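Hi D.,

Good news: the full-assembly prediction came through. Inputs first.
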Amino acid sequence: MSLQTRPRGLLQHLPMAGPALVLTVFFLVPFGIMVAYSFFHRVEGGFYEPAFELANYARFLTPLFLGVLGFSLTVCALAAVLCTAAAVPFTWFLARLSPRGQTAWLVFILSVLSLSEVIIGFAWSTLLSRSAGISNLFVALGLIETPQAYSPSFLALLLGMCFITFPYTVLVLYPSVTRLDPEVTEAARTLGASPLRTFFTVVVPSLRQAVLATLVLVFVFTLGVYVLPQLLGEPQHWTLSVFITDQAIYQSNIPFAAAVAVFLMLVSLALIGLTLLAGGGRKP
Amino acid sequence: MHDLVLEGVGKSYGSVLAVTDVDLHIPAGKLVCFLGPSGCGKTTLLRLIAGLEQPSRGRLLLDGADISGLPPDRRGFGMVFQSLALFDHLTVGDNIAYALRIRGEGKDSQRRRAEELLEMVRLPGVADRHVSQLSGGQRQRVAIARALAVDPKLFLLDEPLSALDAKLREAMQIELRLLQQRLAVTTILVTHDQREAMTMADLIVVMGDHRVQQVGAPSQIYREPANTFVADFIGTSNLLPVTVEAGAVQFGDRRITVAAIPDGLRRGQPATLLVRPEELHVLPTPDAAGEALPNRLPATVTFVRDVGGTVEVHVDCQGHALIAESLRKDAAPVAPGDAVTVDLPREACRVLAA
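Then the structure:
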């Protein structure tokens, strides 16, 4: 007999009422409003009137929108892969430090979370600038001739996205990595696998669920990033979040912005679903 | 078949000593048990042999060649870990064939070998199952098969049976021993269970206090313990503080004649007398006052443990607790509180340095 049983009857479900209410009022209702707006009719001059038309969704089929969508999905997927690829070995080594060292690193990583997207964006744009950036250091070291501006650029944007999500990925991976039995990697070593081979044939597969969760997390997180593309990217690097803001605030086209937002959410939900399906498929 | 020699091997972590001064010869094709209480350094020693730790001092010679600096993946040993350390993300077959896969062997030969090994550990037909679907005993067999997949030069086992229940453990000890003899693979088994060591080993290395205390065949370790640590650790022991005399020892006012006094012990020196419980006799009559026969001590029964087949009589002898064990049919008819005489046969008395 298990101690945990499903709650039965109205009374036992009562503790759930608070969270359910908050979720309904602050998430479902605004989301419902947004969905409703996405079908509204736009009136030139920044207004809209209640209607039910698919015109806003029909606008998706323009090359401009599809281009932005494609770019957003690509850059976020790339950020997810790069950030996870960096975070897995990092967390692996972190878990092997002394408890004191682990705490120090975790505190440092958590402190990065306290920085806002704006501060991170400005910091990186300064760091990658020509006048005050790291290229000056490279010149001093004799690596390059003259200082260069590395921002705005695609790589700068990617770097910023990875930086902002890195702490989250480490925090997601950390519990699974520390739970790995060290004897399992030792077993692989005694069976003839080199340290690198052990890492890729035993450690990474054992962490598959956590790695997938990290990929999804970074992907969804970076899809919502909205300041970084404007600070670190050129206009062609602006993602769908920027596009939505642009439509809602500068073009005053709330119905289209709402439609894009709904679409973006559906697309990311679909991708998450696919990822989980692919990851869960090999489990018994 | 391969043999291993350890020369002055030691390991320290900073200022903490794990194991020291180990000189050992592991003979080819034999099963050697590292036996000792927890924290005695036996697992560290096994890990040094496996290459999972680097020795702070000394050398390891496999067939005469120094392997001290070789990483574990280049030693070609098979190891069964205490946690079994199976790969949860792989099937049983893929677990067993892991070493073959690392070597780059084809899928077909991997598959064949895995099935062959499963046959050998008497677990056929589970190659496609997932590790998590197996019972504890089955997982045990998979771990053994995996370690034997590439005919290891040495077969290392770190308390492999400790997770099994008592009955299964006893059965696996015999099965594992028969398998080892059939394969004639040089094997080192770490255990804290002396029954397991006695069952399986050709040679027992008793370890305690971070060093080797005695090396010998199981019966030798039991009958001729080298010191009080081994005497105390192996089996149940009756130990009495005595003073060395010529051909005898003195316990209080009683003289106890013994078969031999070990070299290095001189008259008047303190020593320890060992008598195994099954060799100690309890006579149901009080010690005759003034008679003072040699090898007889007066005692009082404190407890009688009747476990069916055998009877244990616990007595108090001048403040020292002694235990006598006998078959039920030979047991003296005594009860707690009875004044009795304890007989220590000359041949059964063994003198150890104090």
